[in-house]
Design brief:
This protein is an alpha+beta fold. Helix content is about 40%, strand content about 20%. Strand 4 and strand 5 form a beta hairpin. It is flat and about 70 Å long.
């Protein structure tokens, strides 16, 4: 819903809405691309299917291998649940009694309320995709084909869709660009990557720099217009602590983190 709402908001303020994909624009970001009049993808640009996963308090629980004696709630992928029933039919199970047993087996592993949420999510994602595509595509058959491909015909949520497939196979409004523009896009992406530390894994010790306590500042998202730059910024206090676990003599190093402030700030120095 965040991607859907974002597209609708942006389109209220513009006559034409375009999206630039320098690298990965997966899942919800792909949904945003569906609402664009044109999509510019670099050679490294990637989209993905938009089949969601549902995490429900009524969902299945499985044992955690890292914490014996405890269980973890498992997300249920929308297309996985649907594919299970389709697999049963494809395996030759046709009569109503046997299909009922197959469904009972599924509902024994995935609670019925979660299965209901799965069905609603599946229908909702199709509705959102169709609404966004209809903003700029009037061919109903093309819309239905695009939705079918990106919701179920690529089989895995991890499937990666490159520029050529997005344009020539799926039929998305991907536009060709000159090499000079692609170089500028790559340079801009590198600037954002540096500002947001996208290539740096977070470790408390890097913030502490040898001290026992410190304050870290993390810029996590940037919105720029012609005249202003806003950044979503988090400041947190970090403290190194040593804890002796029951039954052990050697202390274990851990970290306490406390958020001091978080939100959008105007920062035109970036």
């Amino acid at each position: 819903m965040a991607g859907y709402g974002l597209v609708n908001l942006i389109r209220e303020f513009c006559d034409s809405f375009g999206v630039i994909v320098p690298f990965k624009a997966l899942s919800c970001a792909t949904l945003v691309c569906l609402g664009a009049d044109e999509i510019i993808m670099s050679k490294m640009g990637l989209l993905s299917p938009i089949d969601p996963s549902i995490t429900s308090p009524y969902g299945p629980w499985v044992p955690r291998p890292d914490m014996p004696g405890t269980n973890a709630l498992v997300p249920v992928n929308v297309e996985d649940a649907s594919s299970y029933l389709e697999f049963a039919r494809g395996a030759g199970i046709k009569n109503e009694e046997n299909l009922t047993r197959v469904f009972e087996k599924l509902s024994g592993s995935v609670p019925p309320l979660t299965l209901g949420a799965v069905y609603r999510a599946r229908e909702q994602i199709k509705f959102l995709a169709k609404t966004l595509l209809s903003y700029h595509i009037k061919d109903e058959q093309l819309i239905e084909r695009i939705i079918s491909v990106i919701t179920k015909e690529r089989f895995s949520h991890e499937y990666l869709i490159g520029r050529r497939e997005a344009k020539e196979v799926i039929g998305l409004p991907v536009v060709d660009i000159p090499e000079s523009l692609e170089q500028k896009i790559t340079t801009l992406f590198s600037e954002y990557s540096s500002l947001l530390n996208l290539n740096t894994s977070y470790t408390p010790e890097e913030v502490l720099a040898g001290k026992s306590e410190g304050v870290g500042q993390f810029d996590r998202a940037i919105i720029e217009s012609r005249d202003m730059t806003h950044v979503f910024r988090t400041k947190k206090a970090i403290k190194r602590v040593e804890v002796v676990q029951p039954g052990t003599l050697v202390p274990v190093v851990g970290y306490q983190e406390r958020i001091l402030s978080e939100g959008w700030f105007e920062d035109n120095t970036l």
